[in-house]
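Structure tokens please, single chain.
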Amino acid sequence: MRIEAYTQVQQLYQTKKVNQARKESGVSRADQVQISSFGKDIQTAKAAVAGSPDIREELTAPIKAKIQNGTYSVDNGSFAEKLLQKYEEMR
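Here you go.
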């Protein structure tokens, strides 16, 4: 077995790799990102939620006033019915 023949073959392959690397380095590529319309809709919805208050005062103020006055009452039957309805929805 001749070792010098192996080194000659190895040198041939190395020159091809260098030439290929030079050719590829001349090409410039740019990354691009495209956001789908669904993604844009989600961003719009997130912005709307972030801009809205956590508590809707127009709904909670009357209830708060009734609680402070002692006039707020809860119908137990209605409450139980709604509770069971939510339970069924979650199952």
